[in-house]
Design brief:
Distance between the termini: 84 Å
CATH topology of one domain: Serine Threonine Protein Phosphatase 5, Tetratricopeptide repeat
CATH superfamily of one domain: Tetratricopeptide repeat domain
Strand content: under 5%
Low-confidence stretches: 15-30
Shape: globular
Number of helices: 26
Largest sheet: none
Helix content: over 70%
Length: 509
C-alpha cells in the first residue's frame, strides 16, 4: 500500500511537472496579445492618413514579423484595405481583396485579448467592410457586418464604460440610425437598434473634447472630427459647426491628401466655394500617394458652380482615371451641361448618351443624372447658370441671372419649377423667410403631381424655416408632408425622407 501511495504521489508530481513545462513553452511560443502603437506603427498610421499606402505596408509587414502578438498591426493593415476601396471603388480590387479581408478579420477575432482595444478594432473592421459592401450593393452582408460591429460596441460599453475611442463608431451608428429611410428600415429592425442623433453627437463630442494623450489618437481624432462634421451638415443642418470643428485639424492640407479632401468637402458644404477651389488646387500630387480621383470630380464641380471655363478638364480626368462606377453618370451629365452653356449641342448630346450608358444608377445623384440624360432635356443657359451659381452660394449673381429670365418663354415644366424654386431658395438663404415661404408654396401647388423633386424639397425647406422660427407644430406638418405627400416624385426620395425624419427628431416629433 505504501509503495502504491508513493507511486501515486510521484505520478502526480510528474503530471504537474509535465503541465508546467507545457505552460512555459506554450507561453514562450505564443506570447500574450498586446495593443502597442509603437514608433513604427505610428509612422505607418501617419503614412496611411497621407494615403501613402505602399510605404505604410512595408513598415507593417516588418512590424508584423517582429511583433506577431501586436493587434495594432492588423488594425492598421485593414484600414489600408478599406481606404483603397473607399477611394477607388474598384470592383476588380474588391473581388481580389475580399478573401484577404475576411481572413484578416477572422484572424483578428481569434486573438485572445480581454482589452477594450480588441472590440474597438473589430467594430472598426466590420463597419469598414459594411460601408464597402453597401457601395457594391451587397446590402444584406453589409447589414450583418453592422450588426456584428454593434455587438462589439455594446460589449465594450458594458465592460469598459470609460473607453472613449468607441464613441466615434457608436456615435456614428446612433446618428445614422436616427433617420433611416423606409427603404432600409429592415436593416434597423435586423440590428434591433433605434438611433438618436443628439445622443450620437454627444458621444462623438465627448471623445473629441477628452484629453487623449496617446499619439495614436491624433489620426483617430481627425477621422472622428470629419464624421462629426458630416453629421452636423447632413442631419443636424449646422454647417458652421462642421467647418469650425474640421478647420483647425486640416491646416496641413497642402501636404496631406486626406486633410485636403476633408477640408474641401466641409468648405463646400459651408458655402465657401472659392476656398474649396483653392484647397483642391493646392492638393499634393498623387505620385507618392494613392490617387484620389473623386477630388478631381470635386474640383470640376466647384469650378462649374463658379462658371470657370476649365471646369470640364477635371470631369474628364475623373471619367478617364476613376475605376469605380458611382458619380460617372453625374460627371457625364455635368459635361453635357457645360456644353449646353457653350451652345455645343452635339457635345451635349454625346455626353448625355454617355451618362445613360456609363456607370451605375445606385446613388441618388446618378439616378437623377440618368433620368435627365434619358429625357434629353436641354437647359436654357440662364436657368442653368442661376442653378449653378446658387449651388456655389453666389446668391447675388444667381438672383441677377434669374431676374433676366422671361418665364413665359420656358417650354418645360421642369424649368418653370426650377426658376420658382431657385428664387425661393435664394430668398431663404439671404434671410427673407416669409417671401421664401410664399414661393415654396407656389412650387408645391405647381409641382405636387410631377415626377421632379421641387415640390417635396419645397415642403422640406418650409419645415426648416418653421423649425428655425421655433414653430414646431408647423414644422412637423411640412416635414410630414415632404416625407409622405409627393408620391409621384421620383428624385432624391431617400434623401428627402431622411432629412424629413431628422427634422422631426430634432423638434421632438
Amino acid at each position: 500500500m505504501l509503495k502504491a501511495s508513493i507511486f501515486k504521489k510521484n505520478m502526480y508530481k510528474r503530471v504537474l511537472f509535465f503541465y508546467a513545462i507545457i505552460f512555459v513553452f506554450t507561453n514562450s511560443a505564443f506570447p500574450a496579445t498586446v495593443f502597442n502603437v509603437n514608433e513604427q506603427c505610428l509612422k505607418a498610421q501617419k503614412l496611411i492618413f497621407e494615403l501613402k499606402f505602399d510605404e505604410a505596408e512595408k513598415i507593417l509587414q516588418s512590424e508584423g514579423q517582429l511583433n506577431k502578438e501586436n493587434i495594432a498591426v492588423p488594425w492598421l493593415s485593414e484600414s489600408i484595405l478599406f481606404l483603397k476601396l473607399f477611394i477607388s471603388e474598384d470592383a476588380e480590387l474588391y473581388e481580389k481583396s475580399n478573401k484577404n479581408w475576411s481572413n484578416l478579420i477572422s484572424q483578428t477575432e481569434e486573438y485572445s485579448f480581454n482589452n477594450a482595444w480588441y472590440r474597438h478594432i473589430l467594430s472598426d473592421m466590420f463597419i469598414h467592410r459594411a460601408l464597402i459592401r453597401f457601395k457594391f450593393n451587397e446590402n444584406f452582408s453589409a447589414a450583418n457586418d453592422i450588426q456584428t460591429a454593434f455587438k462589439y460596441l455594446k460589449e465594450n460599453k458594458k465592460m469598459f464604460p470609460s473607453f472613449l475611442a468607441d464613441n466615434k463608431n457608436y456615435g456614428l451608428l446612433c446618428c445614422v440610425f436616427s433617420s433611416v429611410p423606409s427603404k432600409y428600415q429592415w436593416l434597423a429592425k435586423m440590428i434591433g437598434f433605434e438611433g438618436d442623433m443628439q445622443t450620437g453627437l454627444k458621444e462623438i463630442e465627448l471623445y473629441l473634447k477628452s484629453d487623449q494623450t496617446y499619439k495614436e489618437h491624433a489620426c483617430m481624432r481627425l477621422e472622428a472630427t470629419f464624421i462629426y462634421g458630416m453629421i452636423q451638415h447632413h442631419l443636424n443642418k449646422n454647417s458652421s459647426i462642421a467647418w469650425s470643428t474640421i478647420e483647425p485639424l486640416t491646416r496641413n492640407f497642402k501636404s496631406h491628401l486626406l486633410q485636403n479632401y476633408m477640408r474641401a468637402v466641409i468648405a463646400g458644404y459651408n458655402g465657401m466655394n472659392d476656398d474649396m477651389i483653392d484647397v483642391l488646387k493646392s492638393k499634393p500630387p498623387y505620385q507618392n500617394a494613392y490617387p484620389f480621383y473623386y477630388m478631381d470630380f470635386m474640383l470640376g464641380l466647384a469650378k462649374m458652380r463658379r462658371l470657370d471655363a476649365d471646369a470640364d478638364l477635371y470631369f474628364k480626368i475623373f471619367t478617364v482615371k476613376y475605376k469605380g462606377k458611382n458619380y460617372l453618370k453625374c460627371a457625364y451629365r455635368n459635361l453635357s451641361w457645360l456644353c449646353q452653356l457653350k451652345n455645343d449641342d452635339n457635345g451635349a448630346k454625346t455626353y448625355y448618351s454617355l451618362a445613360s450608358k456609363k456607370g451605375i444608377a445606385a446613388i441618388e445623384e446618378d439616378k437623377h443624372a440618368q433620368s435627365e440624360a434619358e429625357e434629353n432635356i436641354f437647359w436654357p443657359a440662364d436657368v442653368l447658370k442661376s442653378r449653378l451659381l446658387f449651388d456655389g452660394k453666389y446668391y447675388v449673381l444667381a438672383m441677377k441671372t434669374i431676374k433676366s429670365i422671361d418665364e413665359n418663354k420656358l417650354n418645360h415644366i421642369r424649368f418653370k419649377l426650377e426658376v420658382i424654386y431657385r428664387k425661393a431658395r435664394i430668398q431663404h438663404e439671404i434671410g427673407n423667410l416669409d417671401e421664401a415661404i410664399v414661393l415654396y408654396q407656389n412650387v408645391i401647388e405647381e409641382g405636387a403631381k410631377k415626377k421632379y423633386y421641387y415640390a417635396a424639397y419645397s415642403a422640406l425647406q418650409i419645415g426648416f424655416i418653421y423649425e428655425k422660427k421655433n414653430k414646431f407644430e408647423l414644422a412637423k406638418i411640412y416635414f410630414e408632408k415632404a416625407k409622405k405627400d409627393f408620391t409621384d416624385n421620383k428624385e432624391y426620395t431617400n434623401s428627402i425622407e431622411q432629412k424629413a425624419k431628422a427634422g422631426l427628431k430634432r423638434i421632438g416629433k
